[in-house]
Structures are given as C-alpha cells and as structure tokens.
C-alpha cells in the first residue's frame, strides 16, 4: 500500500506542529487528558484548540487511519482462517470460520464506506479551486471504481445485516455435517475433509479479494497524491493556504 502510506506520511508531517503543541508543555492536551483519566474526572479533559488547517488535517488523518485499520483487518483475517486455535474450548470449527467470514464482509463494507466518504469530502473541499478541477473529474471515476470492485464482495453482507444472519451455502452445510459428526463419531473423517476443503476455498477467496482490494485502494491514493501534493507537500484547499 505504497500510495496510501505515502499520503498518510504527508498528512502526519503536516500535523507535527499541532502534535508537538499538544504535548510539549505540562499544560498540553495529552498531559491534561492523561491526568483526567488517572483521576477519573472527565470534566478535567481538555479539548484541543484547532486552527482551520489543523481541523482539516485531523479530519483527513482520522479517515486515513480508519482505512488503514480496515485493510489491516482484512489481512489479519486471511491469516486467522488458516488455523483453528480453540480445539479445547466450546467454540466449533464451523462457528470460528463463519465468524471470520462475516467479520471479513463487515470490514470490506467499512473500507468501502470510509474510502468513499474521504474521496467525496476531499472533492467537496477543493471544488472551488480552479487549479484542481482535475480532482473533481477523478473523484467521480474513483467513486465508480470503488463501487464496482467492492460492492459485489459486500453485497451478501448488505442483504443480511439488518434482516437475518449471513447465509452461505457451504458454511451452512459444514455446520450441518459438524452437528451430525458430534452425534455420530463415524462421520468425523468426512466432516474433517469437508472442513479443510471449505476452509481452503474461503482462504483463497479472501486472498484473491485482498489482492484486488489493495490494488484498487493503492490506485485511489496514487490519484489523490497526484492531485493534492506537489514536491512531497500537501496542497491545501482554498482558504487554508
């Protein structure tokens, strides 16, 4: 994720004076909020006083960190489904696999929404800048590309989340055979074979999705970098320069 990391780095570089101001003195915001946490008195917590540039940077940075966290979660789930670490607990293999598949769909959905929000908000902030009209053109292309790539993956999540549990035919069959194997030990070998096959299929599906998702997100931030930075520095929106 080179372009995303580069963009985060540029925003963090711009935020350095603000972060230093918050923490450099005993009355700094970090120290004040730490003190409020220790004495358990939220009333002592201080709100940072932000100038307009800092408000813009903090908003963008929060979106970037959420996007990066979602991508990290997708990579982690790819590793989680490789093994089942809870054999001596009441957690079953099929429940463990289902949990991570459902969580995967949720994280892809969050990634899609967070990325779309950031792209649209940036386009809105720079819309009065005649020099960056290219951003408005590119933002519509980016939104369409994100939707086309991520929407098919998260569609099952969108269908089930407010109405019923996520329905996956392979996982449903696996749960059924797992239940039967608990009642009849002779079915255990057949269940284990089925479980390993389905787990492999899901792992490969996640890996393929992650590869496509990371490439798409990298393209998004490569375009944002080309529009919003010059010589490694951020071009601020009109009114903040």
What descriptive keywords fit this protein?
7 helices; two-stranded antiparallel ribbon; elongated; 241 residues; mainly alpha
Explain this structure to me?
This protein is an all-alpha fold and 241 residues long. It has a single domain (51-234), classed as Up-down Bundle (Four Helix Bundle (Hemerythrin (Met), subunit A)), CATH 1.20.120. It has 7 helices and 2 strands; from the N terminus they run αααααααββ. The protein has a two-stranded antiparallel sheet with strand order 1-2. Strand 1 and strand 2 (233-234) form a beta hairpin. Helix 4 (93-125) packs antiparallel against helix 5 (133-160). The protein is elongated and about 75 Å long. 20% of the residues are buried.
Which CATH architecture is right?
Up-down Bundle
Q: What gross morphology would you assign?
A: elongated
Query: Largest sheet, order of strands side by side?
Result: 1-2
Order of helices and strands: HHHHHHHEE
Low-pLDDT segments: 33-39
Looking at the structure, the CATH topology is Four Helix Bundle (Hemerythrin (Met), subunit A)
Number of DSSP-assigned strands: 2
- Helices, by number, come to 7
User: Any idea of the CATH class?
Assistant: Mainly Alpha
**N-to-C CA distance:** 29 Å
């Amino acid at each position: 994720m080179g372009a995303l990391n580069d963009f985060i780095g540029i925003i963090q570089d711009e935020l350095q004076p603000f972060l230093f101001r918050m923490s450099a003195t005993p009355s700094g915001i970090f120290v004040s909020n730490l003190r409020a946490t220790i004495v358990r008195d939220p009333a002592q917590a201080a709100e940072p006083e932000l100038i307009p540039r800092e408000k813009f940077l903090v908003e963008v940075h929060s979106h970037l960190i959420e996007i990066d966290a979602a991508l990290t979660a997708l990579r982690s789930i790819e590793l989680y489904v490789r093994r089942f670490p809870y054999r001596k607990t009441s957690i079953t293999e099929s429940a463990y696999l289902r949990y991570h598949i459902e969580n995967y769909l949720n994280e892809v959905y969050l990634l899609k929404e967070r990325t779309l929000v950031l792209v649209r908000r940036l386009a809105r902030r720079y819309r009065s800048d005649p020099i960056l009209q290219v951003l408005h053109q590119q933002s519509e292309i980016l939104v369409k590309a994100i939707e086309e790539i991520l929407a098919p993956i998260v569609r099952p999540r969108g269908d089930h989340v407010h109405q019923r549990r996520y329905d996956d035919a392979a996982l449903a069959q696996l749960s059924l055979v797992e239940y039967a194997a608990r009642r009849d030990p002779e079915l255990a070998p057949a269940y284990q074979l089925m479980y390993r096959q389905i787990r492999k299929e899901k792992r490969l599906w996640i890996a393929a999705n992650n590869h496509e998702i990371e490439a798409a997100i990298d393209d998004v931030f490569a375009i944002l970098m080309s529009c919003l930075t010059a010589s490694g520095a951020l071009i601020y929106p009109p009114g903040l320069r």
